[in-house]
Design brief:
single chain; alpha/beta; 8-stranded parallel β-sheet; about 45% helix; globular
Length: about 450
């Protein structure tokens, strides 16, 4: 390879909170212990291949702005190889332990299904060699079932069985490649698994197709011996009007319906959470409560825009609360924080990719420290325990455990002349506690 695109950037090091160096970590000290694990193992951060190396800065109003050496025209094998070289240059200089990819991110463009399989497997061999020499690992892999025109009506939910077959082929080979590369999870991202209008949609048919597709993925996971998690990424809309994987609650109901709630978990994206009308921490807490929390796409949206802007996270309070509920739920197992984020169209220099990631990494590091301190401080947990303490009484337990009928409860309430007393929810007090932990 000729001189690297990133040759002018030295490996990023931790220099401490007083550093003024924009190309250094101020809070991310990967070896620092936080609640018994190093920061690196608590956060398990990954670079995404697609936004970082594939996106050339185009949007619906204009052409690409970045002009990276591997951009321009159809992605042939030479360009795919160049991009792979530069990706691992970036991974190693940034110093994160993981990366994530779609099949079409890494491979030369294919004209048919046989060429797709061949081109992808050709690159998997090269990725395997790069991983061996660099030590960088795969957090998760996924197949792109949304970009090509064949997927304009979805992949697994498409009315054309041949599109379903093409999608199944992509997922089969990408799951096997993820297993070969010792990836720790596999994600099913249903970018177009939904509808734009009910006028041309058979809801029952499409949802049954999606359920069978996911079941086949789980069956194949066990057949090949893949030990990682199968993850679904919730997304409410965009590009379709309605997605079948709208939010965590919707996905859990879908999984229960198809008997998959013990087999599949979720990969939650911050920007998708807010697009569905929820907070980021709400979706994490729901997933933890259902027992399906897996991994996180770490980014943010812009509250003044109504679409998925995929910006790097910068809100310390939001990230603190998100990581608080991650830690409260036991932390990550095989999942982690993937930066599904992209620099802005005007950030055209190689160094801008580092600025975006460094800032986000430090925000997560600060959020982790805040969240751990808040959890160890115990004020929030203690308040909730006290607020619900009366439900531990014998009479209250009989109501929840099925030992009292509706009529028996009502008769007892009248006999004792139950008179509820209002208790403050202390919202402002609790928000002040969060502010105290996040302002230092």
């Amino acid at each position: 390879m000729n001189r690297s695109y990133f040759a002018d950037i030295a490996p990023i090091a931790y220099e401490g909170p007083h550093s003024k160096n924009p190309l250094a970590f101020r809070f991310y000290d990967k070896k620092r212990l936080v609640m018994g694990k190093t920061m690196e193992k608590q956060l398990r951060m990954a670079v995404c291949y697609w936004h970082t190396f594939n996106w050339d800065g185009f949007d619906v109003f204009g052409a690409g702005t970045f002009r990276r050496p591997w951009h321009g025209g159809p992605l042939d094998q030479t360009a795919a190889d160049h991009k792979l070289d530069e990706a691992f240059e970036f991974f190693t200089r940034l110093g994160l332990p993981y990366f994530c990819f779609h099949d079409t991110d890494v491979m030369a463009q294919a004209q048919n299904i046989r060429e797709h399989v061949s081109n992808f497997l050709h690159m998997v061999e090269k990725i395997e060699r790069k991983m061996s020499t660099s030590g960088v690992k795969v957090l998760w892999g996924t197949a792109n079932l949304f970009s090509h025109p064949r997927y304009m009506a979805g992949g697994a939910t498409n009315p054309d069985p041949d599109v379903f077959r093409f999608a199944a082929t992509q997922v089969r080979h990408c799951l096997e490649a993820t297993h070969r590369l010792q990836g720790e999870n596999y994600v099913l991202w249903g970018g177009r698994e939904g509808y734009d209008t009910l006028l041309n949609t058979n809801l029952e048919q499409e949802k049954n197709q999606l359920g069978r597709f996911i079941s086949m993925v789980v069956e194949h996971k066990h057949k090949i011996g893949f030990k990682g998690l199968i993850l679904i990424e919730p997304k409410p809309h965009e590009p379709t009007k309605h997605q079948y994987d709208f939010d965590v609650d919707t996905i859990y109901g879908f999984l229960r319906h198809h008997g998959l709630e013990k087999e599949v978990k979720v990969n939650i994206e911050s920007n998708h959470a807010t697009l569905s009308g929820h907070s980021f921490e709400h979706e994490i807490a729901m997933a933890v409560d259902f027992g399906i929390f897996g991994s996180v796409d770490m980014n943010r949206g812009d509250p003044q825009n109504g679409w998925d802007t995929d910006q790097f996270p910068y809100d310390i309070r939001e990230i603190t609360l998100a990581l608080y509920y991650v830690l409260k739920g036991g932390g990550f197992t095989s999942g982690g924080n993937n930066f599904d984020a992209k620099v802005r169209r005007q950030s055209v220099d190689p160094v801008d990719l580092f600025y975006g990631h460094i800032g986000a990494i430090d925000v997560l590091a600060r959020g982790l420290l805040n969240a751990a301190a808040m959890l160890e401080g115990g004020e929030l947990t203690a308040f909730i325990d006290q607020r619900y303490a009366d439900w531990n009484s014998e009479s209250a337990r009989t109501m929840l455990e099925g030992r009292a009928t509706l009529a028996a409860i009502a008769d007892a309430a009248v006999a004792s002349n139950v008179t509820p007393v209002a208790h403050s929810g202390r919202q402002e007090y609790l928000e002040n506690i969060v502010s105290r932990y996040t302002s230092s």
